[in-house]
Amino acid sequence: MDKKKVLIITYYWPPAGGPGVQRWLKFVKYLPEFDVHPVVYIPENPNYPVIDESLKEEVTDAATIIKHPIKEPYRWASMFSKKSVKTISKGIISDYKKQNIVEKLMLFIRGNFFIPDARVGWVKPSAAFLQDYIQKEQIEVIITTGPPHSVHLIGLNLKEKLGVKWLADFRDPWTTIGYHKQLKLTKASKKKHKTLEKAVLNKADQLIVTSFTTKKEFEQITKQPIDVITNGYDNEKHTSFEMDSKFTMSHIGSLLSKRNPEVLWSVLKDLVAQNSDFSNDFQLNFIGSVSDEVLQSIKNNSLSNYINNVGYVKHNEAVKYQKKSQILLLIEIDSEETKCIIPGKLFEYMISNRPIIALGPKESDVEKIITETNTGKYFYYDDYESLKKAILEHYKGYKTNSLKTQPIGLQKYHRKALTESLSKLL
Fold this sequence. Notes:
Radius of gyration: 22 Å
Number of strands: 13
Pfam families: Glyco_trans_1_4, Glyco_transf_4
Helix content: 40-55%
Domain Glycosyltransferase subfamily 4-like N-terminal: 112-236
Distance between the termini: 16 Å
CATH class of the largest domain: Alpha Beta
CATH superfamily of the largest domain: Glycogen Phosphorylase B
Low-confidence stretches: 75-94
Strand content: 15-25%
Largest sheet: 7 strands, parallel
Protein name: Glycosyltransferase family 4 protein
Strand order of the largest sheet: 3-2-1-4-5-6-7
InterPro entries: Glyco_trans_4-like_N
Structural class: alpha/beta
Mean pLDDT: 90
Shape: globular
Organism: Flaviramulus multivorans
């Protein structure tokens, strides 16, 4: 029996690094096992903020990859300020008071001249190219995944012209994502975002979201079917490592300006001052981009000497850091908008057998998953005493070599199980 051809339209694909790549890289890996032949459409000349060449090895030979050129505004913007472009394209936006005139101008242009995002110039040429390809290859189903949400406009265009079945996958929400407030959108720009969002949510045949909160949000805008398929974990290649000799607390991924838990730094400052053994054993690992504001907060709490600021590493290296760390930190911005954010790294954290300490808003989807799976402890930004107590308990476990987790029900988050759920929607 011939496998069903499904066209997947995505901006992020190896050698792009970061969490946005993993979701569809893994779906594409497992889809052939469910009688689906994935055809992946990507930009020919993208401007990825983070590169991880090792991810190329994970692209399955069973997929067909097609490419088309893209005009990247971030390239010409780099002529004015390479640093600002790099941080903005990674999602790191510094506090408004600390932005220079170039950064303020670039954010205004990004927010109001490129709607929904800086890749909007790829929409028309892609739709024209894919219209011919879909008819020639007799493709019946297309999938778009965002961000960038301009990718969904390609799906909208193809739906209107060809009537092809269309699934729109949202790895993040659209108009309620936290950084929208920092883009200095005019009233007209906000309205345009809302109009485009509503069009996509109502014209797509099926919506897929990564969180339960986003599903509830979208249900207020559309009556189209919405399924939650979270991110997940995959079987990683076995790598040899030794557990850290220090009492390491490691954060993997970006620490944005507002992802800055002062309560945690305050607790650690006091533990270091009050307990000489803790002070000798403690180390704070940052694996990924860290904003200047976060580093300044840590300096203000006299913790700079305890930092091991590694920076971005390849995915397989990040996995090794996860497995050998004593504690894994998961930090989210304390706001209503971030309750729906479930970072992809959470699922890798959960199978690393290391306790998770998570901080974020009350009643978040992350809190629900961590509690259900018994993989760590979740704290709010005002939980000084309980956070301090938990870190001390973990420190005692470290000293007695008994620090580990007892997870429950992780199998449903395996990438293959999640792909099976996706295949049923196709």
